[in-house]
């Protein structure tokens, strides 16, 4: 175990070094003079000289890199070079939590969506439910996030009544279908062998669906088009979640489709194992076999991919933050690119990349911890 | 408890469970491993013909009703009709296709191929098509602005706030998307592929160095890396292509390295080496032709991802700008008023979605056909 962690750390160092090198030399690639861009066409020669001095553009390249690296490691990321002048570190400190919350929320939501669907799809592999869910998942994966976001805004914010009616109609139809099916299938039970129990379970499920539908009909949430309320603000966690819901849902739909496909195919191969056969032979109920026997050994790759997805989402929230106007890392970088504030771009990109690399390394290590086969074998 | 068994029995009533992915889909349930191709209610062959024809006919009627006939009804209903109609057309075509051409026909795949062909043709022939003006604002002063989509009129997908034709914009946008992403894929494949083959062939220290470089490129989330690159260059077709190409390099490095390692152990390489072939010949004449096929087949999926990346960039206003229309900048321009004029967003959006969907679909199939690690040799 220690050897694996050590190997990962050793591998991490050159990658981080190259990452820092790449972000630093991004500034060097700018055609022309960064100082001239910052000062603008109306700047005086004194201002120009001052900016050159501040950026240290007159020093040799290697020395500048080392100074910058030293400052960065100590947490000094400089100041933004376009007014209003702010400390870059403070900017990032105020914006990173928004992005992190969004990414974490999206991961949780997508897992909550993906796991039950994958379980049922694997159980009914090759059937109508499985096939249609697979098709829908393929569609979600192909939908660019800005398109998904605009579609969600169009229906959930601009035309909530359409969705409300659809949900109500769908809920009622599902209730009726569940009830009818229960009654029909119950006929095939012998009277003394749990027919009433089966009826009670099925009708209870139908009732639950009905209640949820009615609740949603009565309390349809009003979702904001854009903006954000911080978790620490006075309006509390409810307002925060209401503002974060749509952006997180946008991200979650794509991720859920990826997770679903992965978990489904792993589950299908697990379900062909002998221990499942013996569980079936013992007469275990299907849900029990699926949830407590098959799910755990099938979820190794899901854990890894979910971890990687969390990292990727931290960089992938750019579009969603722009559309929903959230004060996160993504909007900071996009705005900075627009206003040629290279310090901020550099710092933002570096922070996200370091975060991403470190997270991936942690996941690799934890994967080895979870799966004994990797721990014992050669990595 | 017993309910589950009844569920299982009920499962048998489903017909013709042909799923498209092969290996993953051996149905694990029920126990005895029947592939459920046996149906509880065997249906007559003619049944499918009738259902298919009916679905196709109703679908066509619905689509025509939604798009052309019912001009007076609300937009939501028309769109719903058109969507339901398209769904039925697909189902009908699926049934009919499988009736005439055999059970194994993958209708969605052929629809995807047809769509990609259509987009490519439109992009190539954009200047020859009789499209209304979509770029020069000074020529559309007399055109009514914000026309709603109306097929069979002069502006089939409507016009935008400056009277520019949306269909024309979509077609010219397809040209930009295809040129940029194809160029980027070619660049990524050429550089990444060669580096990957070299790394996979020599192994050892070369491989280690290449891995570190690829890892550090993958250390940046793709869109962030892209933002960093376009921050420092002028957004032109050439620069965006190069930036996207850089984005594709690490993927191709990994892909071709992995495939090279599979082939480098095979006997024909050993035989060539025994005949005295040098490294250069081994790489270029023995390994490259074999590695090329799986790597190229993966390109459809990369192409789809890069089209999305380009569209995202131009959506953020950091890629090719107006007057040259791209799917991304059309959607971004329409976004501000899309509550009143949803067609400004959803016309280019649908085309973008369908293209990416088709590329993913075709790419999935291509990868399954040509990936040596999946095929049982």
Look at the helices and sheets of chain B and give the structural class. Answer: mainly alpha
Number of helices in the DSSP assignment of chain A: 17
Give the terminus-to-terminus CA distance of chain B. Answer: 44 Å
Outline of chain A, from the CA principal axes?
A: elongated
How widely separated are the two ends of chain A? Answer: 11 Å
Low-confidence stretches of chain A: none
On the 0 to 100 scale, the average pLDDT of chain B is: 81
Share of helix of chain A, binned: over 70%
**SS strand fraction of chain B:** under 5%
Biggest beta sheet summary of chain A: none
**Computed Rg of chain A:** 27 Å
Radius of gyration of chain B: 25 Å
Order of helices and strands of chain B: HHHHHHHHHHHH
Helical residue percent of chain B? 55-70%
Give the class of chain A from helix and strand content and strand pairing.
mainly alpha
Shape designation of chain B: flat
Mind summarizing the main beta sheet of chain B? none
Number of strands of chain A: 0
Strand content of chain A: under 5%
Query: Quaternary state, please?
Result: heterodimer
Considering residues with a beta carbon less than 8 A from a beta carbon on another chain, report the largest interface and each chain's count: A-B, 82 and 63 residues
